[in-house]
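WARN retry 2 of 3 for item q-0093 after timeout on previous attempt; input resubmitted unchanged.
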Amino acid sequence: MVVSDWLYRFPRVLFDQTIHLYYGPMEAMGRENIPREGPVILVANHPNAVADACLIGTQITPRRVSFVAKDTLTRAPVLGWLVRSVGVIGVARPMEYGQDSDLAKERNRVAIAACVPRLKSGEMIAIFGEGISTDARHLHQVRKGAMRFGYAAEQSAGFGLNLAWVPIGINYPAKQRFRSDVLIRVGPPFRIKDLHPEPATSEAEVLEIGTERLQRELRSLVVNIEKGELVGLIDRLAVVCAPPESPLEARVERHQRVALAVEYFNQVAPRRVADLEGAL
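OK item q-0093 returned
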């Protein structure tokens, strides 16, 4: 409707200006992987709360993006009306419902039902696959929600929708520092036909395979440090290997390689890692 279109355009411009004010150079690699038309579910990591949504909504595609967010936002008295007006779809997080899991499941069924017609009409939806945002430097377990939304839409369309899931990796070399860099990496899309030859009779398998694929793809797009105690060492080594004047993409790639190497040697030769940390 006209009101929601206006409400969408205004905050998009506002968020774009705000994100450019706070962060410095921002690069988005792989934009060509996002289909220019047709139903799409963007699945991103979630390291920086609201900033992640601002980046996804303004920096990677000119298409309108509707977000899936926790339903405490969409059910709020005033804020709820506003976010629903710009297309936000609320989902229930079981952790916030305690013993009332049946209510959470029912609200999520309603959320899926609300998403299906949007996807069938060719819209783009974004969801943060981990379901939470934390300061941890590793990717959390990706939940099945992104696959459930897409599967339901494909099922409703007789599995001829050709919906694309697109992984998005957001990298902040120093997210709390004013004017720091941001690199967004867009991975290749995949579709339901890439997951199973007979999706109509294999829902559980499709959801499992698709979620595992999203986990792998997202890990390949971000700097992933599983051991929190190694963060400082890895960050220092990454700066040595790829100094700040290096291109942003090169720095992030080198950071990934350093993280993999240090975590490997921490398993097979922990003393050498401890000696290295002491030397630095």
